[in-house]
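User: Hi! Is it possible to get a structure for several chains at once, not just one? Here's what I have:
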Amino acid sequence: MTILEFTTMRIGELAERTGVSRRSLRYYEQEGMITARRAANGYREYDELAAVRAANIRDLVHAGLTLDDIRPSLEMGCLDEPLTEASACAEAIRSGLHRLEKLDHQIASLSEYRERLVDYIGRHQEALAEQDDG
Amino acid sequence: MTILEFTTMRIGELAERTGVSRRSLRYYEQEGMITARRAANGYREYDELAAVRAANIRDLVHAGLTLDDIRPSLEMGCLDEPLTEASACAEAIRSGLHRLEKLDHQIASLSEYRERLVDYIGRHQEALAEQDDG
DNA sequence: TAAAACCGTGACACGGGTGTCAACGTCAAG
DNA sequence: CTTGACGTTGACACCCGTGTCACGGTTTTA
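Assistant: Yes, the chains can be modeled jointly so their relative placement is included. Here is the combined structure:
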């Protein structure tokens, strides 16, 4: 615990810190997305890098990406620091571009439906106002 | 077949016309999203309304909505004519709004990742240009 | 030392939409 | 009558990330 080189933590702590469930952390590891050393007793020991990655993965998954989508970025080290600061990546971009296409399609579709929905809402907000319990 | 009142068709034809698989058409029906009369032999018989609905559902599902998301709109008759022309709906809107929230979150998240991705790409397009096989 | 809290693995289930296969009925054409 | 295309239902499988449970080992606390 008082090791200075790296802040080492076990799965419970990491889960709490990142908001990623133990289950998911194990799954991410199983999928090769994060790495954990093993203590003598078999317990996983995570370092800061794992924590950063876990958080980044969490964000991307939450945004609707799959682990396979994320993997290339990760393999290029793009997820080794908080997502807010862009690092240097290159090849991951290629697959990123691929995903981007689909992404744009999806966004476009959703936005289109959104528009229509908003249209409806605008047209009938009086009707809604009368009930307004939601 | 030469009935004039409604163009009646069977599942195969509808599937071909809408691009929705037979399997999905049955599933939609099972989920109460579309209706089919039954011929004496048990075959499903679809009318034009079913065709329109099927196409609309197809679009929305393709856009990332679930059948449960779509159901309210459908129940209000919002999907009874081609989606391009907005009809009069009201209560469906309420659940529409609910879905809309999630939708916006998702779109926002995706867009954010998109931005970062585009950033990366911009920064490293030279590297990509050198390989340019994609 | 015993209880409580943590860790390990393995297995099963879910949701949602779809593919696919089996086993069977129906209908039109040869 | 047989063949083949089409229809029916039911069941099982997939993906993907996650929850959860069982069962056992370890660490910490009382």
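The first helix of chain A runs from residue 11 to 18. The mean pLDDT of chain A is 78.

User: Great, thank you!
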